[in-house]
Amino acid sequence: MSFGVVVRDSAAKDVLEAFFWYHTIRPQLGERLMAALKECYDSVEANPYGYQPRKGNFRHAMLRKFPYRMVYEIVGQEVFIYRIVHVKRKPSRKFGP
Fold first, then answer.
1. What pTM does this model have?
2. What is each CA distance from 93 to 11, 23, 46, 48, 97, in whole angstroms?
């Protein structure tokens, strides 16, 4: 079964903020973050049901080596990625449980 993936504007904004923050510390960190995001994205695309549903229909996939999680929802044959959330900051920006 093949799933289409839709990255919402809010998730793209989260990625840019995180990338620029890590890139200003050290450019290699920004590159590593992007590699971790791609690995997580590929994992969700290949097996979206591989992560447990949380409250409602939202699922969270953790990034390796970075304190972020990808919040997404499966709707029909599409996966909607809503946020890339830092797990230790800004609880008011939390999306899903």
1. 0.87
2. 12, 22, 27, 23, 11
